[in-house]
Design brief:
heterodimer; A: 317 residues; mainly alpha; ABC transporter involved in vitamin B12 uptake, BtuC; two-stranded antiparallel ribbon; globular; B: 321 residues; 15 helices; 74% helix
């Protein structure tokens, strides 16, 4: 990552944004309401849930790892926060969001422990953690939809507006900016990509690689948990497997945003573009009232086409 | 004998664990060891074992296949249309189902080899396409399979579950010979070091394509066998099988970094995973606690089987692997 490429967004980062704009313009030819502020605002709000989760996933993927425990960190955080807020007790209600975030960070640390200390491939370890969380949730809720409701703050964060823009979107942008600043200005960001490139070399240059891995997974856990809190606020409840539809779109958004799945190369801005692209794609396909089956096919084909364009462009340059 | 054990240490451990689990299962099962119990157990195990073999062919060349479950769903829904007849029609149907699986594998392979996209991302996207196609074929579960044929494939022959015979056929009739061919050697060579394999004159693209094709074929076999067991077509089976297949290969001692492990290990891992699940059912644990305990055991097994920290000789070697 040279200084120059940090200042100027590269084509990989810009492509999903361009794709999103093409989709809006193309879609508006058939459905003029797509250009309306109401529709676009709603898309930004929905995109924020995926965006917050994908932000954390980017950090882990930059490291060259993957976090498959996203679904049940999201689900667990939602269950925890709604059941705390559902008690009606003011103290517990106030604790709902912090408790969910702490939960996410702890699971992130457990993920980091398996990957950094036990040296288990992240793909299987986080998968195992996910199935344990699922088991815990079933144990706690008895397999039924958990009781409880979102607190006023959670609802405001997910569905409210600040100065005309959706609060969720404002929060997503704020957090992305903070994280980007953190990655850009501290050693942590550099260590992250350098571990992604070559972990051995990074370790030999005196970096405490395990602590970087711990921190990265903790950030990812925090982001997923916050995504869960937002989703619970949006739905005003938590339900079983509410996080499941977020795992694969998250990875797709990160990769479409130009981050290498092997680690080392990528930017948060690209992930923002990838999230917008995927949210719009899903939304426009459903506006066009295409069946689930065709939506799934078109979704897969478009992701492949985007990735092919990326690799072809790289081959030429 | 000692050398043989040392050379196949990972498979030996997996087999020992499997035998221990199976013994406990048969002892705790209220109906004890009988052909009936063994048949049901073996059928469930074989479905996952075939999926794990599909995953094995991706993992051994340092890839990963997230579309295993999706290919199973697609072939299962295709099977629910073409396996209702008998005679030639039925045989043609079986071939068609396997060809669909093979075609899915080839699509993955082409995108990885010629599109130069990482396998994990390619299969993530193609899985979405395959599930979509499966949903087009069967928006809701339904269809039927020729019952006589399904019975023949899922019951027993002279007291031995057919599923176990198929497992033995796959291992001794397919894997053992394949391992000795240039293709079998090439798979391990690419998985260990693609560059070294290329420089030794191994045709990396061809072998990589072959490994994806074999993966697709076995995912198709898994879908086919799933059809025999359930006798319906269901497009919603994908997610479970993909993730369990990954867990199974790791449990069986196949390293996700490629080049280490064998198909026998993948099969043993799948059998272990299913046996743990079956054990839970009769363990007397409260039903609500079972998913958690199952997850815990899975995590522990993976931690022991997949942790590199247990095998390193010095601190730096951890990173080199």
């Amino acid at each position: 990552m040279s200084t120059r490429s940090k200042r100027l967004p590269d084509p990989d980062t810009l492509m999903p944004f361009a794709g999103a704009i093409v989709m809006i313009l193309g879609g508006s030819l058939f459905f003029p309401q797509i250009l309306g502020l109401g529709y676009l605002g709603q898309q930004l709000q929905i995109a924020s849930f995926l965006g917050v989760i994908a932000m954390g996933a980017t950090v882990v993927i930059l490291l060259g790892h993957i976090d498959l425990s996203v679904p049940w960190i999201v689900g667990g955080a939602a269950i925890l926060s709604t059941s705390l807020a559902g008690t009606g007790d003011p103290v517990l209600t106030a604790l709902a969001i912090p408790a969910a975030l702490v939960f996410g960070a702890i699971i992130g640390l457990i993920n980091g422990f398996g990957v950094a200390i036990l040296r288990i491939p992240s793909m299987v370890w986080t998968l195992a953690v996910n199935s344990m969380l699922l088991g815990l949730a079933v144990l706690n809720t008895g397999g039924f939809n958990p009781k409880g409701e979102a607190s006023a703050t959670m609802i405001w964060m997910a569905s409210g507006t600040v100065g005309g823009i959706p609060t969720a979107f404002a929060l997503w942008m704020l957090l992305t900016a903070l994280l980007a600043l953190f990655l850009g200005r501290t050693g942590f960001g550099r260590y992250l990509s350098s571990i992604g490139y070559n972990e051995k070399a990074t370790f030999l240059s005196g970096v405490s690689t395990p602590s970087v891995i711990f921190a990265a997974f903790a950030i990812a856990g925090l982001c997923s948990a916050f995504g869960g809190v937002l989703l619970a606020g949006y739905a005003n409840q938590a339900y079983q497997s509410m996080g499941d539809p977020y795992l694969l779109p998250t990875i797709a958004a990160v990769v479409i945003g130009g981050t290498s799945i092997l680690g080392g190369r990528g930017r948060l801005l690209g992930t923002v573009g990838g999230v917008l692209f995927i949210t719009l794609l899903t939304s426009i396909l459903s506006v066009m009232q295409i069946s689930n089956a065709w939506r799934s096919i078109i979704f897969g084909v478009i992701i492949i086409v985007m990735l092919l364009i990326q690799t072809l462009r790289r081959k030429e340059s | 004998m000692a050398d043989l054990l040392r050379a196949n240490r990972r498979e030996a451990i997996a087999l020992a664990v499997l035998l221990a689990l199976l013994t406990v299962y048969l002892v705790t099962h209220p109906r004890g060891m009988s052909t009936y119990v063994m048949t049901i157990w073996a059928n469930q195990c074989l479905i996952l074992a075939l999926a794990a073999i599909a995953q094995f062919f991706a993992v051994i060349v340092r890839g990963i296949d997230l579309s295993v479950g999706a290919v199973m769903a697609l072939t299962n829904t295709v099977a629910s249309y073409v396996l209702a007849g008998s005679g030639i029609g039925l045989a043609g149907g079986v071939v068609l189902v396997l060809l669909v699986g093979l075609a899915c594998g080839l699509v993955n392979g082409i995108l990885v080899v010629y599109g130069r996209i990482q396998p994990i991302v390619v299969t993530l996207a193609t899985a979405s396409v395959f599930v979509g196609l499966a949903l087009l074929l069967r928006p809701t579960p339904g269809g039927q399979i020729n019952y006589d044929f399904a019975d023949a494939m899922t019951l027993d022959v002279l007291g031995v579950p057919t599923a176990l015979i198929i497992t033995a056929l796959v291992i001794f009739g397919f894997w053992m010979p394949l391992r000795r061919t240039g293709l079998g050697l090439g798979l391990y060579a690419i998985g260990s070091s693609e560059q070294a394999a290329f420089q030794s004159g191994i045709q990396v693209p061809v072998i990589r394509m072959a490994s994806f094709a074999l993966g697709g074929l076995f995912a198709g076999l898994a879908g086919l066998y799933f059809s025999f067991v359930t006798t319906t077509g269901d497009a919603g089976i994908a997610p479970n099988f993909t993730l369990n297949a990954i867990a199974a290969v790791v449990l069986g001692g196949v390293a996700l970094r490629g080049g280490v492990g064998s198909l026998i290990g993948a099969v043993a891992g799948a059998f272990i995973l299913k046996t743990i699940g079956a054990l839970m059912f009769f363990s007397g644990l409260p039903p609500l606690a079972q998913p958690f305990v199952e997850g815990l055991i899975l995590a522990a097994a993976i931690a022991i089987g997949g942790a590199d920290i247990l095998r390193v000789r010095n601190r730096l070697e951890v990173f080199g692997r």
